[in-house]
Design brief:
Elements (H helix, E strand, L loop, with lengths): L1 E6 L7 H15 L3 E6 L14 E4 L7 H8 L4 E5 H15 L3 E5 L7 H9 L3 E4 L2 H9 L7 E3 L17 E6 L8 H14 L3 E6 L18 E5 L4 H5 L4 E4 L9 H8 L4 E3 L16 E2 L4 H12 L2 H18 L2 H15 L1
Parallel strand pairs: 1-2, 1-4, 2-3, 4-5, 5-6, 6-7, 8-9, 8-11, 9-10, 11-12, 12-13
């Protein structure tokens, strides 16, 4: 098959863009011709993989004819985010090309995108069953929604020894990621543990959260954005996800499961589909006191944490490989063709 991904991203930086890169690589490895359109006027300065093609085109009405000419060369158009869907919509109207829309959040789909997905034979790939339910609630026909989980590369992570327990979060420094809750939990844990560190991996300004980590400044390490997965997960004893809304399935949860790092997460969006609170990881609520108590019980029971992470690893191997993601996408494309 010949697959053209149209992305509203201008670089491979955040979660959705990283998944686009992984699915493109997986499809390419399975023998398909894959190309990616990035939403930027030039590819200059970008370090791009060489195993598939890239086109840097600013998505706008002015570039529509160029994108239509490019789309003629492909069997399936896979649009990522609403901006890309608006462009891909014209390939349905003009070229009658099959279009797939990628949806990675439980926020309601609105406006043109909602009308488009309801009125036209466009298939939607949802990254979790939670996203699928949100789409159905918006009126998108169930039979045109397919759940395809994201992926992460298999890596052998060698854990770095430490005398301190290392609790980490991997998320952009945004309010929806629940940083006030993370720092509140960190403060409570610091009261009970004499040797503990809190590692924050993510881009953004820490200043807006300064009041929330006041008193534990010496225990919090802001590591910035990090693309090297081994650097992140080799230095964590537990991943904490405090996201409050809008997730599809949190990428760091998927990665931690695959790299045998115990997970504690809020029941946000698709995360409880794999972290069940009993066998594969800890489910915490949004109350700081009960959440910190739950996590401390896990920290003081290392055998339980080891069993949870082992179970999560087995489950993640079944669902989160790049090969499995590519196979599932092939089925979706095949249904369209």
């Amino acid at each position: 098959m010949r697959i053209l991904h149209i992305a509203s991203h201008d670089a491979f930086f955040r979660g959705g863009a990283v998944q686009l890169l992984r699915m493109s690589r997986g499809l390419s490895l399975r023998g398909h011709r894959v190309a990616v359109v990035l939403n930027r006027s030039t590819c200059e300065g970008l370090e791009l993989p060489e195993d598939f093609d890239f086109f840097c085109i600013r998505l706008s009405a002015f570039s529509l004819l160029r994108l239509l000419r490019l789309s003629r060369e492909f069997d399936v158009i896979h649009a990522h985010k609403p901006v890309a869907l608006r462009i891909a919509f014209f390939t349905v109207l003009v070229l009658r090309k099959p279009v797939v829309f990628q949806r990675g959040t439980t926020y309601p789909v609105k406006g043109f995108s909602r009308w488009c997905l309801k009125a036209f034979p466009i298939f939607t790939v949802a990254v979790s069953h939670a996203v699928r339910r949100a789409l159905v609630e918006c009126g998108v026909p169930e039979e045109r929604i397919f759940v395809v989980y994201g992926s992460a590369p298999f890596l052998k992570i060698n854990k770095k020894p430490s005398s301190s327990f290392r609790l980490g979060i991997v998320a952009a420094l945004k309010g929806k990621k629940g940083y006030p809750l993370f720092f509140c939990i960190a403060s409570r844990i610091a009261e009970k543990l004499s040797k503990v560190k809190f590692l924050v991996f993510g881009s953004g300004s820490k200043e807006k959260f300064r009041e929330h980590y006041k008193g534990i400044e010496g225990l919090v390490c802001f590591m910035g954005h990090e693309e090297d997965l081994e650097k992140i997960y080799s230095g964590l004893d537990m991943l904490l996800c405090t996201s409050l809304k809008g997730e599809g399935f949190t990428g760091s949860v998927r990665e931690a499961m695959l790299y045998s790092v115990p997970v504690a997460t809020t029941p946000v969006s698709g995360n409880p589909e794999f972290i069940d609170g009993a066998h594969t990881g800890l489910i915490i609520d949004k109350d700081c006191g009960s959440a910190s108590s739950c996590i401390l019980k896990g920290i003081f029971n290392p055998k339980k944490l080891k069993k949870l992470s082992a179970n999560a690893f087995v489950l993640s191997c079944r669902f989160f490989s790049i090969e499995r993601q590519a196979e599932n996408l092939e089925r979706v494309y095949g249904t369209l063709l």
